[in-house]
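Teaching assistant here, posting this on the class forum so everyone can see the example we discussed in section. The complex has two components, and the goal was to see what a joint structure prediction looks like when all of them are supplied at once.
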Amino acid sequence: MLQCTKLHDIVAAHNTFLLEENMNVENLSEELTKNWKQAQQQFWKNISSQYAASGASLSTDFPNVTEGLDQWWALMNPPISKQASEQANATMKQAMDMGNAFTQFIEGFSRANGDTSTQSVESWLSAMEQSFKYRQSMNSYMSALSAQGLESVEALRERIAGMEQDGESIKSLRELYELWIDVNEAVYSKFSMSQKFQDIYGDLVNSCIAFQCGLDSAVESQLKAFKVPTKQTQDDLLKQLDQEKRDNEALRKQIKTLEENDKGKTAPAAKKPAAKPTVTKTTAKPKADPKPAAAKPDDLTKIKGIGPKFQKHLTTLGIKSFAQLAKLSKQQAQELDDKMELNGRLLRDNWVGQAAELGAKQ
Amino acid sequence: MSVFEISNEAIAQELSDFQNKLASGAANLAVMKELPSGVTPHDVVFERDKLRLLRYRGNPTHKQNDKRNKTPLLIVYSLINRYYMTDLSDRRSMVKGLLEAGQDVYLIDWGYPDAGDRFTTLGDYLNGAIDACVDDICHRHSIAQINMLGICQGGTLSLCYGTLHTAKIRNLVTIVTPVDFHVPDFMLSHWAKNIDADQLVDTLGNIPGAMLSALFLSLKPYGTVSKYMGMIDIMDDASALKDFMQIEKWIYDSPDHVGETFRQFLKDFAQENKWVDGTLEIGHDVVDLQKITMPVLNIYAEKDHLVPPASSKALGGLIASDDYSELSFDGGHVGPFVSSRAQKIIPPAISKWLDSK
């Protein structure tokens, strides 16, 4: 954590230095050369104070690099012609931008890490604690099972004693094996239905998952620093995806219903050439339901839920055949239900479906 | 007189027999081919994400074809393990039995959920996936109602579906279906009582299939050990060994369980038994078992250690249907599907019951 803070401060100091200098090639060649030594001293001084602030002690002095750099710069920096300076300026600017971007990235990373570092250490510590709890639960579980093992041996002894009393015998290894399995299964099955087992089993599973959960969140906090999409991001996307699926399903159903309704309405009109725009006018008027006179009367009481009374009512509304009922769209069925004041019974008993089936049988 | 009457000669003989069985069995194992995941020919008639709706092909020359039940039957399999338990081999296939008895059989294969399905809810399964399959079948046959058969957790799903979409189910069959999760000998819900469901699902997301397999095996750990001793007994019989390995394949072919749905199962069903006291909510709907008014046939296994018979049988007292029947099968949880005895009993009984409605 300390290291992260240091790194962050050092990078910040360096960055400030670069920005404050507002460099270009001419600045570099004139101003900076002049101020280089001073700038270097300032830079190392900054670092020194940052180290001091972060509580770390510096046992040695910083290297005396400034003089060496001064000489190096003089060697590497021959007087620049005015012609070349423009191009050099552009190149330098590009390099500076890249440098700035890089230092900003490092700064961002170290800051993110710095901010989450406490949390990160805590989450690792908590994961460790969960692992201890898990091991404890596992120990309780295993020792409970081994106690059952001892109990099984005791039960086997009793069973054999019982057999002896009853004059029974074991005549093969297989019989002995089967007796052993039988006794163990009985002891285990009794134990596994006990309150104690329920408790230790619950503890085992919960502590195991808590440990896994702790590890996951420790890893997550690290991934966040690297801007790697986390489980949370994934989950959010998956939730959205599921909602899309639900919406699609609802739309599919809606389309189906509309298509079916449309089939009923446009089927007779489909033969007409629909060339002129006046069509809208003519088709806008809803066509009346199929004429009752055209329908052959059926025994509607064959439909579960329709008695003579409802049949009479339906007849007065012009519905006399299975085919007429079967053709109703969901909306039309609802309207008919309302008209007959059936409080949804028509839909509940599925008169339309029943009518379709009865019609098909004819 | 000592209980142990095992002579040295008998031990030597036993060990030698054992070695022989192992040797000839190993040869049988070595030549065993990849085992199929379901054998009866079918068409995939509908797909949505990983879900596939299968329609099994009836034998066109079979005389029963003329008398085929006009209401198709949709098998809703559990979200745990794979659907082909209903169709392991030619000799052991509930699907085949139902086809031969004249049913038009559809089945939902849930596929293998992955991380992308982690937030799929019980409501999505019921009002989305299952409802889409039911609508597809209804549309295909121009009918408004189908028959539904739910297996284990699929039975629980079917019952929930039946309360939410009552009009679409004509008859409902449930097999080894958990209903009352708080009956005294329900080991799974006893174990689940103290599990922190939220922490579990929030941490793991989907529940790994291998973890579920291990859980189911740990209900009877000694039984699992002795099962392999039983395997050595039959290893020299290639056909019996194949039957054994087919079930083994099914046991370990365990898809991950969608996290969000698992959370609701664990909390609302196993821990709080909500639908028994009428407080279960799915989406915005209350699942009221009193809405189950259609005829119901409830099949349970007498020696079921996963879903105790008492849990399944509780259904009779919770639904409003006045046409409720039970069929008891003498066997374990998978017995009604895989035992050779079941082939002669279960599919014909279901079919007869459906045809009578």
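For the discussion questions: The beta strands of chain B are 42-48, 51-56, 73-76, 105-109, 146-151, 169-175, 281-282, 285-286, 296-301, 324-329. The first strand of chain B starts at residue 42 and ends at 48. Think about how each of these relates to the inputs above.
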